[in-house]
Amino acid sequence: MNMQIEEIIKDSIADEIGIKKGDKILSINSIKPKDIIDYSFIINDEIINLLVEHKNGEPEEYEIEKDFDEDLGIVFTSAVFDNVKKCTNHCIFCFVDQQPKGLRDSLYVKDDDWRLSYIQGTYVTLTNFTQSDWERIEKYHISPLFVSIHTTNPDLRVKMTRNPKAGNIIEQLKKFKKIKTKIHAQIVLCPDINDGKELKRTLDDLSQFKSIIKSIAIVPLGISKYRVEELKKVDKKVALETIKIVDEFNKKIKKQIAMASDEFFLLAGVDIPNKKYYGDFLQIEDGVGAIRLLKDSFEKCQKKLKKRIKNKSKITIATAKSPAKLFKEFAKQIDVENLDIEVIEIKNKFFGDDINVAGLIVGQDIIETIKNKHIENLIIPSVMLRKNGENYTDEFLDGKTIKDIQKINKNMKIHILNDCYSFDEILKIINNL
């Protein structure tokens, strides 16, 4: 068990009694929590006995009196205190297996832990579930979970995940329905495998669970240049068919829960749907609705742009192929005197030309693209940077950092977009020039 403390909230109970960053919690009321879920329930008491090991190795016990639901003000380095449950699948489309050798060890680790699904929104396949997992989910009323379905055909799901335990997904969904755990579902679409008739079957099977399914995201598989499996890419024909199947399903169940990701609409060459299609944008992190949010945000921000900036300036937006096309459309519509807008498409040489999303752009590809260009203000999305919990670091997937980018030109200002689904931050950059 590792309950190491990453941060203490100022003026909190933990701060007042002298607990510090780097200390470890050994037990709470003589209990060793497995994760932040256990911890959250255990501290909901008026008297807490806390055993702490300080950075110098010295243990200290605290007796704390507090309000029943008052937080201690402790932030941990990890949401899971015991071992994260590893993925036991070998999915034919797994992107982790499509990475080159020589990257950080953490990039090759595949987790399949329902606790991280609940806390951080990562997807789980349920193939490593134990009776204890089901009991805890029911006990703590855990909801929602993000579940990778892919197909409800038992034999096909076993084949796609290469796991003999993957065929009972319907029975598992029935359990979730019984204990009223809500689900966000994901289907990674692989042409000639789980598309077409198989996709229709999967959606029809899922219709019986519409009371617990909050959303269904259909996303295309990603194929890097390191792919060993012979898999087909999603093309225009498959994209059009998938969009149609999704629309027909929603009409059939009279509920808007299934959504094709943005990439399908781009590949199909059809307009991005209006915001009603995406509802509450529940699958935005899976690339479902990001373009619609950006388009709507841009329309609002366009009205707030200055007509003129004082000194002649230039901004450069560097992003992947798919979003670059959208930002080039925006740039044509922006009419601000003394402002020059450049949109640079970063080609993904690291993973291959077929990877068009910003989240898989690496530092070296940015450096190679911009090293001979005159750039005053460089804007890059935070999704290109490695994530640590809920926060982004300054490091790209290939180990390059923001400092490495800065070395190209010390006078270049680098702006990181924290909200990649809004134009607001770019608006502020322009208006502050």
Characterization of the model:
- The protein has 14 helices and 16 strands.
- With 433 residues, it is of the alpha/beta class.
- Helix 7 runs parallel beside helix 8 and helix 8 crosses helix 9.
- It folds into 3 domains: 72 residues, Pdz3 Domain; 193 residues, pyruvate-formate lyase- activating enzyme (Alpha-Beta Horseshoe), CATH 3.80.30; 137 residues.
- It has a 5-stranded parallel beta sheet.
- The model has no long low-confidence stretch (mean pLDDT 92).
Instruction: Report the average pLDDT across residues.
Output: 92
- The CATH architecture designation of the largest domain is Alpha-Beta Horseshoe
Rg over C-alpha atoms, rounded to the nearest angstrom: 24 Å
Main β-sheet description: 5 strands, parallel
> Which band does the percent of strand residues land in?
15-25%
User: Level of helix content?
Assistant: 25-40%
CATH class value of the largest domain: Alpha Beta
**Based on helices, strands and strand pairing, what is the structural class?**
alpha/beta
Instruction: Tell me the total number of β-strands.
Output: 16
Shape: globular
Supply database-style keywords.
single chain, 433 residues, alpha/beta, Pdz3 Domain, pyruvate-formate lyase- activating enzyme, 3 domains, five-stranded parallel beta sheet, four-stranded parallel beta sheet, 16 strands
Topology:
Elements: E1 5-8, H1 13-17, E2 24-28, H2 36-42, E3 47-53, E4 59-65, E5 74-76, H3 114-120, E6 123-124, H4 131-139, E7 145-148, H5 154-161, H6 169-179, E8 183-189, H7 196-206, E9 213-220, H8 236-253, E10 258-260, H9 262-268, H10 290-302, E11 308-319, H11 321-333, E12 337-345, H12 363-370, E13 377-381, E14 385-388, E15 391-396, H13 402-406, E16 413-417, H14 424-431
Parallel strand pairs: 6-7, 7-8, 8-9, 9-10, 11-12, 11-13, 13-16
Antiparallel strand pairs: 1-5, 2-3, 3-4, 14-15
Helix pairs in contact: 7-8, 8-9
